[in-house]
């Protein structure tokens, strides 16, 4: 029997209903994302952000010139890729994005199904904000430091278990939200990337599955933020 998660968006009633159908993702244990396939976007919807071209190719070329491993990219490079996805939207069933297709085809989906129960098919129209974050990290070759999950609570605990959890907004940080002001990790409902601290008690973010089921740039108040996960970026 599937048990629904607390992962939900309060931006619109449709998103609330969609999240209730999330399909059996209950945290049993936190596992790493290191087994995620290196060919991170294997879906037919792969675009110029694939590892073979576009932003990622440039990032890897720059890293190679600097003598760094190709996966060591900056927060700015990751955010450029994330912002490139703005405008992508879900279908009428709450799925159909390349983020869903990628996650379902990845080894990580099998791991999280084994952890949480359900089936890979359950991800087809599941809430996808964390799939978006995971996709971006994997495209940049940073799956071992951004992590990969479809369940925000598990993803936040993954960062905490690695001493990469805190309360300071930094560009490229993975930001976790609770829209009712709950400050516990177990109350997390949504996730995105920090673009910048606005310095006025708000942050600018790029998020998937927001504003009616799209990738958008948003401004969020500190009252909605539970905490931040800090990937390891190149200096």
UniProtKB/TrEMBL annotation:
Residues 104-230 form the Peptidase C51 domain. Pfam families: CHAP (PF05257). This is CHAP domain-containing protein. PROSITE patterns: CHAP.
């Amino acid at each position: 029997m599937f048990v629904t998660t607390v992962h939900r968006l309060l931006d619109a009633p449709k998103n609330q209903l969609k999240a209730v159908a999330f399909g059996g993702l209950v945290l049993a244990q936190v596992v790493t994302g290191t087994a995620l396939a290196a060919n991170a976007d294997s879906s037919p919807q792969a675009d110029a952000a694939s590892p073979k071209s576009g932003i990622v190719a440039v990032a890897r070329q720059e890293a190679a010139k600097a003598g760094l491993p190709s996966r060591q990219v900056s927060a700015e490079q990751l955010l450029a890729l994330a912002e490139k996805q703005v405008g992508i939207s879900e279908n009428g069933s709450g799925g159909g994005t390349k983020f869903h297709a990628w996650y379902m085809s990845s080894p990580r989906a099998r791991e999280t199904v084994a952890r949480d129960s359900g089936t890979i098919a359950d991800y087809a129209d599941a809430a996808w904000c964390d799939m978006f974050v995971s996709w971006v990290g994997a495209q940049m070759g940073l799956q071992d430091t951004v992590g990969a999950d479809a369940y925000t609570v598990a993803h936040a605990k993954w960062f905490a278990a690695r001493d990469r959890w805190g309360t300071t907004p930094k560009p490229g940080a993975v930001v976790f939200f609770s829209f009712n002001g709950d400050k516990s990790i177990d109350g997390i409902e949504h996730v995105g990337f920090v673009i910048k601290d606005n310095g006025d008690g708000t942050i600018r973010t790029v998020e998937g599955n927001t504003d009616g089921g799209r990738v958008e740039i948003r401004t969020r108040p500190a009252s909605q933020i539970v905490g931040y996960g800090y990937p390891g970026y190149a200096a």
